[in-house]
Amino acid sequence: MTSTTDELDEVAEQQRFDALIADEQRIEPRDWMPEAYRRTLIRQISQHAHSEIIGMQPEANWITRAPSLKRKSILIAKVQDEAGHGLYLYSAAQTLGITREEMTDALIEGRARYSSIFNYHTPTWADMGAIGWLVDGAAICNQVPLCRASYGPYGRAMVRICKEESFHQRQGFEILYELSHGTPEQKRMAQDAVDRWYWPSLMMFGPSDDASPNSAQSMAWKIKRFSNDELRQRFVGMCVPQFEALGLECPDRDLRYDEETGRWIMGEIDWNEFSEVLAGRGPANAERLRHRREAHDDGAWVREAAAAYAQKMQDRRRFAA
Ligand code: BYC
């Protein structure tokens, strides 16, 4: 009897969930949701949070060597923004019933994914420009549609993140613009950075649609609004006129616009490189994780102090009551 009632309840809940999704309404933490929807969100949001936190490293590498005080303060602000994005996203994931500790452990033990893009080195100052322009540009293309993700806390976090990303993208463009209009050596440095970051930026959108196991279901649930290839197309279309404005060459020599289909025909992405990076064998994977682990260990005293302070406040309130 009880199990039949439970089954009926579950059918009714599923119908209500489906109706909310069909009606473009938001799913909130208090709402019933299918277990697979919850797990998919935890997967995507926590990966996204880890990407922001690991993503601080390639740029933090240049804070002490920024070419002027102004550049240094802008870069510090950007890296701080990324820490903030990680925090909003971890908080959004926590509303789904996973703890911050569980997510952090998965990252530092090497069980969690984070974006492939952060496993590349930043040997020159122009890399700060290329990251801002290309990496944050790709992030904006991918993340603006996530502001309409069906899960409320994720969509709301993304609104604020996207506002900050657009500042990041502009500061990157501006760094490259200045270099590409500077001395021949500066221009070469800008081109070299763009040559190194262009293809990995295209990989940020994930595998091609026919090799993307999660896309169809995530789109049906309106977490993702566009497929990986659709967003990659949009990004390339956005970059082409900007390459021209910068006076830099697009590293994809085969790139052309097909009037008939209205699509960009691109050169072949090196999917072998992508899978190597995902398997932990990219140029900087080991270094990124090692640094994250060290930072976690170094911060142990802060977590302990915060927990002790919270306990003290709780005790004080209890005794006062
Ligand atoms: N790197 O079925 P698919 C930022 C994985 S932060 C690593 O297409 P999905 C920024 C994928 O997870 C940028 N892994 O998956 C920060 C899946 O593996 P699992 C981060 C990747 O989820 C600081 C498998 O491949 N942005 O912008 O439908 C400074 C199959 O893929 C990648 C986000 O996280 C990759 N590039 O689509 C500056 C955005 N691509 O989990 C900038 C939110 C795919 O099954 N996330 N994989 O083991 C998304 O939009 C989607 O999760 C993705 C992948 C488009 C990334």
From TrEMBL:
Pfam families membership: PaaA_PaaC
GO MF term list: phenylacetyl-CoA 1,2-epoxidase activity
GO CC terms, sorted: cytosol
Example of a GO biological process term: phenylacetate catabolic process
Segments traversing the membrane: none
UniProt cross-references to InterPro entries, sorted A to Z: Aromatic_CoA_ox/epox, Ferritin-like, Ferritin-like_SF, PaaA, PaaA_PaaC
Gene3D superfamilies cross-referenced by the UniProt entry: 1.20.1260.10
Domain of life, source organism: Bacteria
Record NCBIfam families: PA_CoA_Oxy1 (TIGR02156)
Protein name in the entry: Phenylacetate-CoA oxygenase
Naturally occurring in which organism (per UniProt): Leucobacter chromiiresistens
Highest classification ranks of the organism: Bacteria, Bacillati, Actinomycetota, Actinomycetes, Micrococcales
